[in-house]
Amino acid sequence: MSDTHNEREQLLALRDRIDEIDATIGKLISERAGCAQKVAEVKSASTEGDVLFYRPEREAQVLRKAMERNEGPLSDEEMARLFREIMSACLALERPIKVAYLGPEGTFTQQAAQKHFGASAVAMPFSAIDEVFREVEAGAVNYGVVPVENSTEGVVSHTLDNFMNSNLKICGEVELRVHHNLMVSSVTDVKSISRIYSHGQSLAQCRKWLDAHYPKAERIAVSSNAEAARRLKGEWNAAAIAPEKAAELYDLQVVSEKIEDQPDNSTRFLIIGTQAVPASGVDKTSLLIAMRNQPGALHNLLAPFHAHDIDLTRVETRPSRSGVWTYVFFVDFTGHVDDPVIRATLDEVSARVSDLKILGSYPKAVL
Question: According to the UniProt entry, what is the EC number of this protein (predicted)?
């Protein structure tokens, strides 16, 4: 009986301490929100025209510091996520950020938008990557979120193609661990599944699992994973591959989790906007380079990066729309254009190619 009493006393003491800590946390969050409001007032009073409330480089620095200070038991990623939501809520007091993303609701791109901007941002889905670019260019939204690269299936070429005719800047990146789930509706006969809906890339990323578990089922590619989930209503012999969020939105049941063939499968997304981003301390730069298809062209392009010991993270080739024998290279590397070494390197590259366009320097994905 005494052991039960002691346990009860310990729990009560711990709960009282948690209440005290919660009260302190609440006061500090309110104090931080008050500081954010004062920042907005100072910016509004001292700046003419549009005021920049959201600063990608500043947010990246805050998140990195939160992770560096973390002593556990929460993971660095979880600590950064909590700080992201606090910053998102505080920023919404100044001016809620409007974000366009490749929809519909329930897609991985929506998850990427929320991961980067937090739940307090106003996120709006659009049906095509072109539309996301147009909304940002027109000023209807502050930023856009588009997929650009998958770790197993390669680049999203439509996103790269849009940069050829756009003056938008890359303001940030998001790396999202992608998990696929097989889901059904309330009317599905699980033993009679004969068709499986999903986006083409998702079907490819789950190919081996589908071969092993549903080798005879027809695989039907649709415009998005969310569209695949939406189609299940009323189809008794169909299933969908989609993220967990889609199951919540469309009232579906997940029957198999994490069915992707590669457990480290991830997708990279770009944040697009209209303004250049100052250096955050840990940055990447993306370029668009046009040049003639001639012997030694790629070597001439890469040589200055090698000479200046600059880390190239991706080189992607796309046919140019302006000429049959002209090619466009998309190049990502570590560093910021404000760095004198980077600037000197780009000057050397520019002298060797037909055209060089800086798509943006931006904070490297924090988590």
Answer: 4.2.1.51, 5.4.99.5
